[in-house]
Amino acid sequence: MESSTFIVNVGLLLRGWSLDVERDVNVEVRDGVIASIGHGFSCERNSITFRHGIAIPALVNAHLHVFDYAFQEAGLDLKLPELVSEPHGLKHRLISSLSEEELRRAALEVCSTLSRQGVYLALTFCERLDAVKVLRGASEVTGVRLAALVRPRRLDDGSLSFEGLLDEADGVGLDSPLRYSCEGLKWIKSECSKRSKLVSTHISETSSSRLKGDLELALRCLNPDVVVHATHLDESGIEALEARDIAVVVCPRSNMWFSCGLPPLKLLLEKGVKLLIGTDNAGWVNPDLWRELEAVYNILRLQSSRADPKEV
Q: Could you tell me if 299 and 263 are in contact, meaning their C-beta atoms sit under 8 angstroms apart?
């Protein structure tokens, strides 16, 4: 198969983990992969020039609920547990009632928004077990990769089952470890480990879940790869995550919208935790990662007057 090669000239490029600024740069792309980065504009026939353009690493939305976009701002007068708790919160009742076409439309609209922002990957909590194929279809249409994180089905006898879902999904995304026994969490981790799948869970989004010991249960029985929110973790909890090399996804605009508080960003950075950013529920929080980055920076300035934009 003939390879596809083109060159993009840009006036400004941010390079590497440290986002070093380089000016007047040419980027050679071969079969969709950056092959080389050189200084000066190329005059090759297969080049395109954005003299005032800026090239940056593609963005990752590390936590996203797609399907509640189908009923935006429903239940504004409800508290967080009444609105989003599994399985009887308003969100889950509404998602269970959506047709496949409504699911597809929501996924396409959210993915189109992400694509325009420069997002290439979103870690997506998928509440409907039959909706993984909908996420895959939206990815094919828009070019945005959606990593589908599912939840096990609880059978009538109380046991848990994935019924082949892990063969299709990219991993597990739990609403809360508090909804499972220690044995159930260990089983989830074991099933994911067998297939090299990602394990993620919400942790300490609210003060109530923190007081109930969700972090301790997750560390003891689940050992997740990623935890989401960590809004009410103290120094010892954050140190426990760092010691196990567990990444944390913060969603500050969601925390503010649902009146949960502010994530301890300064402490997370000081302790060296792997920090990711997500936009959470698309039905209530615009899935705009640039606005999320702005919120993160503003909160860092609130918590530390020496906030460095490069840390964000």
A: yes
Residue 187 pLDDT > 60 = yes
pTM: 0.90
pLDDT at 155 over 80: no
Claim to verify: residue 120 and residue 72 sit in the same structural domain: yes
Per-residue pLDDT tens digits for 210-234: 999 999 999 999 999 999 999 999 9
Q: Classify strands 47-55 and 5-15 as parallel, antiparallel or unpaired.
A: parallel
Same-domain check for residues 145 and 239: yes
Strands 33-39, 20-30: pairing is antiparallel
- Alpha-carbon span 222 to 175, nearest angstrom: 13
User: Residues 167-176: pLDDT tens digits?
Assistant: 889 999 999 9
How much is the mean pLDDT over the chain?
93
Residues 136 and 83 in one domain: yes
CATH assignment of the domain containing 31: 2.30.40.10
Assign 215 to helix, strand or coil: helix
CB distance 67 to 97 below 8 Å:
no
Q: Where are the beta strands (DSSP E) in 167-290?
A: 171-174, 198-203, 226-229, 247-250, 275-277, 280-281
Tokens of 195: 């297939």
Boundaries of domain holding 123: 59-311
